[in-house]
């Protein structure tokens, strides 16, 4: 019964990524480069450099690949901690399996960099750092195992959705730039991210959330903090 819903979600996440990666977005919102007569802020030099840097789709593609390369490397370090903190064996297995996939995502990104003649290089992905920091707060919490597992799944699904959005965009950029082999590699990773998200959905719905719901409310406890 879940399968048609999952298929829809997968399709809509692909479409969503394609809409956001549409070249129309770029033709409509081109920002003018400031001239010397305009008011300057202390960082305006950096800003102008950035506008120049992102003048072609290829530079944006490289920028996004660097963000992803850093994000995946952050995850290679974070996933073992999430596996260790999970109480459900199924959840531990899911994280261990996704860790192996994540290592191959790093390898694929290196091949993608190679196709455009760029050295694999990361650029700190602040979004992934924030998602991991927020997730690590849950790992430190005291409480019922199933409730904490449910919280770990929420954190992990936020990570997967970030990756799905990013890979959908870079896959589309690779297609537009005629980098067919890279588009294929990025699509394979996108499929694995979507699968990982579905595995987490299923674990939450079938095991973790029902167990968390069974936890009795402590006497005199308030849900407000
Ligand atoms: Fe990944
Ligand atoms: Fe992932």
Write structural notes for this entry.
The chain has a domain at 53-208: Ferritin, CATH 1.20.1260.10. It is 76% helix and 0% strand. It has eight helices and no strands. The protein has helices spanning 2-20, 24-28, 44-53, 57-85, 89-115, 126-140, 145-176, 180-214. α4 runs parallel beside α6 (126-140). The longest helix is centred in the last third of the chain and has 35 residues, at 180-214. It is elongated, with a radius of gyration of 21 Å. The two termini are 37 Å apart. It binds fe (ii) ion (FE2) (2 copies).
List keywords for this structure.
225 residues, mainly alpha, Ferritin, 8 helices, 0% strand, binds fe (ii) ion
Number of strand elements? 0
CATH class of the domain at 53-208: Mainly Alpha
Examine the coordinates and then state which fold CATH places here, giving the name of the CATH topology of the domain at 53-208. Answer: Ferritin
State the end-to-end CA separation.
37 Å
Q: What is the overall silhouette? A: elongated
Low-confidence residue ranges: 1-9, 15-29, 33-52
Tell me the name of the CATH homologous superfamily of the domain at 53-208.
Answer: Ferritin, core subunit, four-helix bundle
Treating each run of at least 4 consecutive H or I residues as one helix, how many helices? 8
Helical fraction equals: over 70%
